[in-house]
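BUG: 3D viewer hangs when loading the predicted structure for this chain

Environment: internal workstation, default settings.
Expected: structure renders.
Actual: progress bar stalls at 90%.

Input used:
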Amino acid sequence: MNRENIMQAAQIHLVVATLIMTVTFTAGFTLPGGFDNDINTFHAFVVTDAIAFTSSAVAVFTFFVMAASVISVTELPVVMRIYKFATFLQLVAMSAVVIAFVTGMYATSNLLQNLQVQGKCIRS
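C-alpha coordinates produced before the viewer hung:
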Protein backbone atom coordinates (compact mmCIF):
# COMPACT_ATOMS: atom_id res chain seq x y z
CA MET A 1 0.00 0.00 0.00
CA ASN A 2 1.34 3.42 -0.87
CA ARG A 3 0.75 6.74 0.85
CA GLU A 4 -1.90 7.90 -1.63
CA ASN A 5 -4.03 4.79 -1.11
CA ILE A 6 -3.75 5.15 2.67
CA MET A 7 -4.77 8.80 2.50
CA GLN A 8 -7.78 8.03 0.28
CA ALA A 9 -8.93 5.35 2.71
CA ALA A 10 -8.31 7.71 5.62
CA GLN A 11 -10.63 10.30 4.04
CA ILE A 12 -13.46 7.77 3.95
CA HIS A 13 -12.73 6.70 7.52
CA LEU A 14 -12.70 10.35 8.57
CA VAL A 15 -16.25 10.83 7.30
CA VAL A 16 -17.45 7.70 9.12
CA ALA A 17 -15.68 8.67 12.36
CA THR A 18 -17.17 12.16 12.18
CA LEU A 19 -20.66 10.75 11.70
CA ILE A 20 -20.22 8.42 14.68
CA MET A 21 -18.95 11.32 16.76
CA THR A 22 -21.96 13.44 15.79
CA VAL A 23 -24.46 10.68 16.58
CA THR A 24 -22.91 9.84 19.94
CA PHE A 25 -22.71 13.52 20.90
CA THR A 26 -26.40 13.92 20.13
CA ALA A 27 -27.32 10.71 21.96
CA GLY A 28 -25.57 12.01 25.05
CA PHE A 29 -28.01 14.91 25.22
CA THR A 30 -31.14 12.99 24.22
CA LEU A 31 -30.99 10.18 26.75
CA PRO A 32 -33.34 7.23 26.37
CA GLY A 33 -36.43 7.17 28.55
CA GLY A 34 -37.27 4.48 31.04
CA PHE A 35 -33.97 4.43 32.84
CA ASP A 36 -35.64 5.03 36.23
CA ASN A 37 -36.57 1.37 36.44
CA ASP A 38 -33.23 -0.08 35.39
CA ILE A 39 -30.32 2.13 36.39
CA ASN A 40 -27.76 -0.48 35.21
CA THR A 41 -29.06 -0.23 31.65
CA PHE A 42 -28.82 3.54 31.83
CA HIS A 43 -25.22 3.31 33.10
CA ALA A 44 -24.34 0.88 30.30
CA PHE A 45 -25.80 3.29 27.77
CA VAL A 46 -23.90 6.29 29.14
CA VAL A 47 -20.58 4.42 29.38
CA THR A 48 -20.77 2.91 25.88
CA ASP A 49 -21.89 6.24 24.41
CA ALA A 50 -18.92 7.97 26.08
CA ILE A 51 -16.53 5.28 24.81
CA ALA A 52 -17.90 5.65 21.27
CA PHE A 53 -17.67 9.44 21.37
CA THR A 54 -14.13 9.46 22.77
CA SER A 55 -12.87 6.80 20.36
CA SER A 56 -14.39 8.64 17.41
CA ALA A 57 -12.97 11.98 18.51
CA VAL A 58 -9.47 10.54 18.88
CA ALA A 59 -9.82 8.77 15.50
CA VAL A 60 -10.85 12.04 13.84
CA PHE A 61 -7.91 13.81 15.46
CA THR A 62 -5.56 11.03 14.32
CA PHE A 63 -6.82 11.23 10.74
CA PHE A 64 -6.29 15.01 10.82
CA VAL A 65 -2.72 14.44 12.04
CA MET A 66 -2.18 12.06 9.13
CA ALA A 67 -3.51 14.57 6.62
CA ALA A 68 -1.54 17.48 8.05
CA SER A 69 1.74 15.67 8.37
CA VAL A 70 4.36 15.89 5.70
CA ILE A 71 5.87 12.43 5.96
CA SER A 72 8.22 11.30 3.27
CA VAL A 73 7.91 8.01 1.43
CA THR A 74 10.72 6.52 3.54
CA GLU A 75 8.53 6.95 6.64
CA LEU A 76 5.58 5.02 5.17
CA PRO A 77 5.56 2.54 8.10
CA VAL A 78 4.84 5.46 10.45
CA VAL A 79 1.84 6.52 8.35
CA MET A 80 0.67 2.91 8.26
CA ARG A 81 0.90 2.63 12.06
CA ILE A 82 -1.06 5.85 12.53
CA TYR A 83 -3.68 4.62 10.05
CA LYS A 84 -4.02 1.25 11.82
CA PHE A 85 -4.36 2.98 15.20
CA ALA A 86 -7.10 5.28 13.92
CA THR A 87 -8.89 2.36 12.25
CA PHE A 88 -8.76 0.39 15.52
CA LEU A 89 -10.28 3.35 17.38
CA GLN A 90 -12.99 3.60 14.77
CA LEU A 91 -13.83 -0.11 15.18
CA VAL A 92 -14.03 0.39 18.95
CA ALA A 93 -16.36 3.35 18.38
CA MET A 94 -18.60 1.39 16.01
CA SER A 95 -18.84 -1.49 18.48
CA ALA A 96 -19.65 0.87 21.34
CA VAL A 97 -22.33 2.61 19.25
CA VAL A 98 -24.04 -0.73 18.64
CA ILE A 99 -23.98 -1.54 22.36
CA ALA A 100 -25.25 1.95 23.24
CA PHE A 101 -28.07 1.53 20.74
CA VAL A 102 -29.06 -1.84 22.17
CA THR A 103 -29.00 -0.58 25.77
CA GLY A 104 -30.96 2.52 24.78
CA MET A 105 -33.58 0.37 23.04
CA TYR A 106 -33.74 -1.91 26.06
CA ALA A 107 -34.32 1.02 28.39
CA THR A 108 -37.00 2.39 26.08
CA SER A 109 -38.72 -0.97 25.65
CA ASN A 110 -38.97 -1.33 29.45
CA LEU A 111 -40.76 2.00 29.50
CA LEU A 112 -43.10 0.84 26.75
CA GLN A 113 -43.87 -2.39 28.60
CA ASN A 114 -44.66 -0.45 31.77
CA LEU A 115 -46.96 1.88 29.83
CA GLN A 116 -48.82 -1.10 28.35
CA VAL A 117 -49.32 -2.63 31.78
CA GLN A 118 -50.53 0.70 33.21
CA GLY A 119 -52.84 1.17 30.23
CA LYS A 120 -54.43 -2.21 30.84
CA CYS A 121 -54.92 -1.39 34.53
CA ILE A 122 -56.58 1.93 33.70
CA ARG A 123 -58.95 0.30 31.17
CA SER A 124 -60.05 -2.37 33.67
